[in-house]
Amino acid sequence: MAQEKHPEVQKSERLIEEYHSQRSNWATQAMEDDEFRNNEQWKTDHLSTLKARAQSPVVDNVVYPAVEQAKALLTANKPKFQSTGREDSDKKVGRLFADLMTYIWDTSMGNVELKQAIDDYYVKGMGAIQVYLDPMCDYGRGEIMFKALDPLNLYIDPNARDTFCRDAACMIVARLFTGEQLIDIYPQLKDYLPEMTTASDERYPTRSRKSSSDTSIEIGPINTDSYYKHYEVVDRYEKIKYQVFHVLDPSSEKEFSFNQEQMEAYSKELAIIVKAQGKENIITDDLQLKDFLEIIEAVGPIYHMIQNPQTGQPEPMPGPEGKNSIPGSTVELSRITKADLMARGDIVVNQVLVDRIQRILSAGGMLISDTVMDVDSYPIVTIMNRHNRNPYPMSDVRFVKPIQEYINKLTSLIIAHASSSTNTKLLIPRGSMNRRELEEEWARAGTGVIEYDPELGQPIVAGPVPLPNELYKNREDAKGSIYQILGIHPLSQGDPSSAPSTYRGTVAIDEYAQRRIKSKLDDINEALNQMGKVVIQMIQSYYTEEKAFALLKPDGRHQRQVINQPVYDDLTGDLLGRINDISIGKYDLIVVSGSTL
Predict the structure, then answer these.
(1) Which of 177, 264, 443, 478 is paired with 453 by a 20 to 30 Å CA distance?
(2) Alpha-carbon distance 38 to 47, whole Å?
(3) Phi-psi region of 365 (alpha: psi -120 to 50; beta: other; left: phi over 0)
(4) DSSP string for residues in 121-154
(5) SS3 for 513?
(6) SS3 string of 489-503?
(7) Do the bridges between strand 348-363 and strand 366-373 make them parallel or antiparallel, or are there none, so unpaired?
């Protein structure tokens, strides 16, 4: 009897089918555009027609080098980040987040991942970057990483309108894995593999064009091998309202944000009420609390001070004041829980609803984890190219596809004309000479021999009409249109024909050329800024222990930073606090505009 699936798994599978039905046309077009960029630019019926005419299906691919040039311009340098604290007390620690972001960028091979996301941005219409925690890195302590997602594996709520899909109800990442890959990623699933459901590649788009080259080109993931069993891993991210307790403790001048479990533990913590000279003080600081608890153990909850006749220093004595007591020195200590302080109003608690991301991870129809991430934005950031207020943007390749097909047809005609020009048609009287000898003689020039009846006219040599120069100009203009649509100036490719005669003029033209592509750079920078917001929240959630990391500066200097560094009392060994404690405070992180050009 088949085991009933978890309700959350059923919801994930239902949503992915609904999202797939909405985005199927876009996914097919994205796959077509990727094939088109990789030289598969002739349709099957066009290939048959050209072969029937003895013409070669030549591909003069302008799209591929144009996309590569655009990627090279946008990723010429590693992005630089700036960070600062929202309050004055956070500015010193805030500077660390820029270094932390650089460290995460380097450990994730950010240049490679960003280049892949930009490639998808140009070719498929959308790039996607996912931020995640790899628990196996740094000897099991975990590292925050990010990677470029294949947009064909990303399913977005069709009702999303935001360019970063921040208003989406759900975002789902689905991908096929073999059993061996699944066990390598999730070792705990080894014993459950026989109970898991295998999957097919029905939802994944297939190739739409026949290769125009002699060798077959494999584009995209291959999921059709018959040796391995495949299982679908569905990773669903859903935005929910999560109850958070905002706590303000005036006595220690601290504020906290707790979930339900943390709030229950906080409520059970002890505090001390100190009554002396008619005044009442509340002690919640850990170090002061420890000192007062030691006093209670030593002299009791009520004590007074007397003057030591030998040392002249005041000493605590149990009980209320007596004859030899220092007047007004009676102190009364009372233990109390923080829950009681909340009831008295000495600690202010507000219950608020905040945005959080719930993650439902399943594999083969089996629930792996159901967690609430301590972030308020999706850890998947999309980079939309031609965004039309839906999650199905158009790519630049789709816009230039008709122009590229026009170039290919012109090139095929030019080659056919050149072949006809070297293949002269000779008309001779029938029976006037040996046809085979004539063909052998003219074979060196590619001559074609056609017999004719002399009664119909004189022998002629048939040749094609010369092509007009405007045809060649049209082809070059079409190539220029492709580069213009992709935002690339000829000077950016090293073309000296459009360069001014002076150095300053060349620099000015190069600067103007970069302005053309800056609009696309702004989209990418904003996506990196959105990713930085998620990274900061994940850093504060996961980097809670002491951690050292090293950076190599552009000038070759080596820099080492330490976060959450504990400080202990030399005598007692007690924890006094932390240096560079990044778990508290609010910080903003932005990428320096133009730093990647």
Answers:
(1) 443
(2) 17
(3) left
(4) HHHTSEEEEEEEEETTTTTTT-EEEEEEEPGGGE
(5) helix
(6) CHHHHCCHHHCCCCH
(7) antiparallel
Beta strands 547-552 and 461-462 are: unpaired
Are 55 and 176 contacting, i.e. CB atoms less than 8 angstroms apart? no
Q: Which residues, 6+ apart, have CB-to-CB distance to 178 below 8 Å?
A: 228, 229, 230, 231
Q: In whole angstroms, how far apart are CA 421 and each of 150, 190, 438, 443, 444? A: 48, 68, 19, 14, 14
Q: Check if the beta carbon of residue 482 is closer than 8 Å to that of residue 403.
A: yes
Q: Whole-angstrom Cα distance, residue 478 to residue 583?
A: 56
Question: Rounded to an integer, what distance in angstroms lies between the CA atom of residue 223 and that of residue 229?
Answer: 10
CB of 298 closer than 8 Å to CB of 373: no
- Cβ(379)–Cβ(144) below 8 Å: no
CB 198 within 8 A of CB 231: yes
Residue 69, H or E segment: helix 63-74
Cβ atoms of 449 and 435 within 8 Å: the answer is yes
Tokens 């797939």, located at residue: 20
Q: What's the token pair of residue 136? A: 């196996």
* pTM, to two decimals: 0.80
For the residues of 519-533, what is the DSSP string, one character each? HHHHHHHHHHHHHHH
Distance CA 40, CA 63 (A): 11
3-state secondary structure of 313: coil
**Which residues face 359 on adjacent strands?**
237, 371
Q: Using 70 as the pLDDT threshold, list the residues of the chain that sit under it.
A: 1-3, 88-90, 204-218, 220-226, 422-435, 437-464, 489-501, 503-515, 554-556, 569, 572-577, 597
How far, in Å, CA of 392 to CA of 397, rounded?
Answer: 14
CA-nearest of 36, 34, 67 to 152 is 34
> What is the residue type of 199?
A
Tokens of 61: 């691919």
Spatial CA neighbour of 203 closest among 217, 221, 216: 221
Give CA–CA dist 186/173, Å, rounded. Answer: 17
Neighbouring C-beta atoms of residue 591, cutoff 10 Å: 21
pLDDT digits (tens, 9 = 90+) for 53-67: 777 788 889 899 889
* Tokens linked to 157: 């709520």
- Please provide the size of the chain in residues: 597
**What CA–CA distance (Å, rounded) separates 399 from 482?**
9
pLDDT tens readout for residues 533-577:
999 889 888 888 888 888 777 666 777 888 877 777 677 666 666
